[in-house]
Automatic annotation (TrEMBL):
Gene Ontology terms, MF aspect: acetylglutamate kinase activity; ATP binding
Residues engaged in binding substrate: 57-58, 79, 172
NCBIfam families according to UniProt: argB
The name this protein goes by in its record: Acetylglutamate kinase
Highest taxon above the source species: Bacteria
EC number, UniProt record: 2.7.2.8
Swiss-Prot/TrEMBL site (Transition state stabilizer) positions: 24, 230
Keyword entries, A-Z: Amino-acid biosynthesis, Arginine biosynthesis, ATP-binding, Cytoplasm, Kinase, Nucleotide-binding, Transferase
Gene: argB
């Protein structure tokens, strides 16, 4: 046990991790992300890894919406966001959740700057083609300049997914999609941390999948609700040249350090060519 811990610490010291990394913390796990995650993120930031943290907050929006007499509704994992709901979404995500995370990161020595997709036009969106979703956008353009400016100044960007439309208005964007679009633009790996250990099928954790496997699982109905934008984000990151995308539990204290040490954790989605050579068990039992 001690040996495993030492090996993980050594791997972090040795730099066995990417130079740029997108980490998305889902609202379903945000309140329960263990200290070990923040300590690992702090080590990455200190080691000069260009880190982007994207956060969700779907649960917090639900709580506020219900407190105000509203009823949360979603289609295919995306929130139906009418004109009266978008200000609440922006207040909760870009205000409360974003700033709480920035303050929390400071406790671990991470100097973070909170921003939303609207800042520096980081994420430019177009209205989602499904009119029933209301003010929901899908990302059509990513400007990396705000991230690069923050990295150059030594800050870790912490991103709320609320973004700006081509019409200049605020749009609600799913946080997985925001993370996937940024990972695509950077060609960087993306870690999608949520409240389940990864993609489950018949109660089993699928530890490694190709994009083709993911599409087949989607078509077979195994992937539902909030898992749908996650796999879309993973596929988008890979399409941009990311070497991998992983979906794992943001509640597991060891998950991030294990991942960074190169261990099989969660569900890893790899490009087809790499997948066949991977040392990880394909579609088998994972952690
Ligand atoms: N095949 C699947 N394997 C695991 N989880 C799944 C699957 N299909 C749907 N889900 C659901 O996806 C949820 C995670 O998405 P979501 O609730 O949106 O989390 P987050 O807030 O982290 O984005 C899980 O809690 C689970 O209910
Ligand atoms: C359009 C859309 O679905 N937006 C999301 C944005 C927050 C989010 O994605 O939070 P999680 O990561 O916790 O799911 C929402 O309003 O819930």
């Amino acid at each position: 046990m001690v040996f495993v811990q030492e090996r993980k610490e050594q791997a972090l010291k040795d730099g066995v991790f990417p130079s740029t990394l997108v980490v998305k913390l889902g609202g379903s796990a945000l309140a329960e992300v263990p200290d070990s995650w923040f300590a690992a993120l702090a080590r990455l930031a200190r080691a000069g890894v260009r880190l982007v943290l994207v956060h969700g907050g779907g649960k917090a929006i639900d709580t506020w919406l219900e407190a105000l007499g509203g009823t949360p509704k979603s289609i295919g994992g995306l929130r139906v966001t009418d004109e009266s709901t978008i200000p609440l979404v922006e207040m909760v995500l870009s205000g409360l959740v974003n700033k709480e995370l920035v303050r929390h990161l400071a406790r671990f020595g991470i100097s973070a700057v909170g921003l939303s997709g609207a800042d520096g036009e980081l994420l430019k969106v177009r209205r989602h083609p499904n009119p029933s979703l209301g003010r929901v956008g899908h990302v059509v353009r990513v400007s990396l300049a705000p991230l690069e400016a923050l990295w150059a100044a030594g800050f870790v960007p912490v991103l709320s997914p609320v973004s700006v439309g081509e019409d200049g208005e605020a749009y609600n964007v799913n946080a997985d999609e925001a993370a996937g679009a940024i990972a695509e633009a950077l060609g960087a790996p993306v870690v999608l941390a949520t409240d389940v250990p990864g993609i489950l099928a018949g109660g089993r954790l699928l530890s490694e999948l190709t994009p083709e496997d993911v599409r087949a699982l989607g078509a077979s109905g195994v992937l539902k609700g909030g898992m749908l934008p996650k796999v879309e984000a993973a596929l988008r990151a890979l399409a941009g040249g990311a070497p991998w995308a992983v979906i794992l539990s943001g509640r597991d204290p060891d998950a991030l350090t294990a991942l960074l040490a190169g261990e099989a954790v969660g569900t890893r989605i790899l490009p087809e060519a790499v997948c066949s050579e991977s040392p990880y068990p394909k579609a088998g039992e994972g952690r």
